Amino acid sequence: MGRLIKNILGLLERLLFFRPSPRGLFVINYHGTPETVLENVAKHLEYYSKNYLLIGPETFEDICRKGSYPQGPKPLLLLTFDDGMENNRHVLSLLEKKDIRAFFFVIPAFIDAADPENYLATVIRPGYSNSKETAPEDFRPMDWDTLRTLLAKGHRIGSHTYSHSLAKEDDEEKSRKEIVYSRQLLEEKLSAGVPYFCSINNTAVSIGPLQEQLIRAHYSFHFTTFYGNNYPSVDPLRIERINVEAYWNMNEVRYALGNIRKTLIKT
Q1: Residue 223: beta bridge partners?
Q2: CATH number of 22-266: 3.40.640.10, 3.30.420.40, 3.20.20.370, 3.90.220.20?
Q3: Are 170 and 213 in contact (CB under 8 A)?
Q4: Which of 21, 30, 68, 100 has the lowest tally of Cβ within 10 angstroms?
């Protein structure tokens, strides 16, 4: 769906005074957070803070273990960031001001690539361009030292596959490298447990029975691209998420999380 339509539906959402249901557990996923749109992301966070109870990884994991949701007048919201872009460091200052922790899903082959800009353009985002991304950090990954710092601050690091190349038709050797080896390498580099996996692109396209079996055998959490509300029962191996981009305006954010979109998807 184009941005213009999202803007119109998001504006309608606001004009009709739709509000989030107090019962909900929503997981947002971002990608890059360029410095050029950091003010925009700050507006997103203010909206979340006003309408949701922002929770961190520790609370989320506790909900998954106990199946018990904190009671309150607002739905819950968890933040995740895919691809491990270097420009994610800009959002960290915003998160720290609000005492928020998040999940960051990274790609080991991207981190270790000799030419990360070319790797991003040819493997991770072929054919993609964004006028908001102009700085070198918008095309490079966070390095291992930065990831260790994130862990020390209470954030979580997860696998976004080894190379960002996985399809449900892949054989076992390829799938094991993308799913199993990626965890082993992350744990070796970070000296920490990594029980979190995030599937790439469209989960329905990248994850088949073989890949799902490997994920279930080697991870405790699987963050998907499936849209939805993880309430009243969250499945830690099928966590549904809602995509929001850092450059979106507030009407687009309202649409992504709003009642109109939920109705459209159900129909």
Answers
A1: 198, 239
A2: 3.20.20.370
A3: no
A4: 68
Q: What is the pLDDT of residues 113-167, one digit of tens each?
A: 999 999 999 999 999 989 999 999 999 999 999 999 999 999 999 999 999 999 9
